[in-house]
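Following up on my earlier thread - several people asked me to post the actual chain instead of describing it. Fair enough. Here it is, all 414 residues.
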Amino acid sequence: MFRERTVSKNKPEAKRQMKILYITLENISLHKGSVVHIKETINGLKERGHKIGLIARASAPFDGADAFWNLNPFLYPVLKNNWIRRWANRHSMMVSLFFLLFYLFRKVSNYDIIYARDYHAATMAIFPRVLFKKRIVYEINGLASEEHKLYRKSTLGTILVAAIKKAEHLAGRCSDKVIAVTPQIASYLISHHGCQPVKVAVISNGVNLKLFHPVHDPALINTARRNLGIRENDVVVIFVGNLAPWQGIEYLIQAAPELIKLFKDLKFLIVGDGMLKREIEAEIKMRNISEHFLMTGMVEYSKIPLYINAADICILLKRKLASGFSPLKLYEYMACGKPILASRVEGLEFIEKEGIGRLVEPEDSGEVQKALYEMIQDQEGRGNMGLRGFRLASDKFSWESKVAEIENLLETLR
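Reply from S.P.:
Thanks for posting it. Predicted structure:
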């Protein structure tokens, strides 16, 4: 029902400039997948000749848009007062929402289209959009109401989830177009939020092929390994991403002890940060396998390609979610030519179908252990998987092609 459109690899024809106001509550100074998506979309639309204004949070200077308005409340002189600053710190989201609304009323008249990155931004834009008669596009990368259920078990958490679901419903119904990164999100919006199918488009995440690609220089790879404390002959299993409840990293840790007994030169590289970092570190320490695990924390995005290239097997374990998955790291793994071990969940089925990796049942450490054992043993098979993944990423998942799809959708709103 929802099929992704393909685009030509030829240079796009010149189109009339659109003025797009991109709004989000993300901190674009952080090194994480959602920020990558924002920056790639903005850069791609700018390269295609469009004028981009950005309203977002930032803790460092940002010059990637034609105009930028910062929602970080601590940059404003009135918040230099210690008491006000402490209050704003406790209510930072509310303060940022206030500034978002303020900037929308001041700036939206100068733009043709409002591009809202999340349900917070989309709901805040509804009134200014109606008042100034602008069109709004709502991009949804996951069902926040579903994700919150995984770590908010209290009565207050239940109320919050219900409120988020209402906001998601309002954002979907009141937008002119909705971009969903998975067919499952699109189906959910239509069946649960009453969105008309004609206004919902599926455009998956992508990968920057100029940044992510195979590195064939052994000296460069060995230097990267040494800097991480990894020996030349070690077998490296890598995870890149947010350490969040839906990632399933605990099943990798549970599988690790038996694998370490069989492969003394096995290393696990965890690149990223998140709310579960301390729990993960404690679990690794409790199992007495710390010397085989390397946790880098959050690193600069430009370093990620070399880290992936320094690894042998890439991990993408997920819990089942109704929203399905289209994670950035999947396409980054593929573009670097690495084999993938992933969960058998909606959105990742093509990994097995295309022969670019292995799938295991979600939340099953036994299957993770068995699959990793077989992949470690089969070096030639890993190489073939990686090559197929690289070709697929190059053919179907470049950011250039994804931004072209976004541009075509925005063109329909003129």
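The chain is about 45% helix and 15% strand. That should answer part of your original question.
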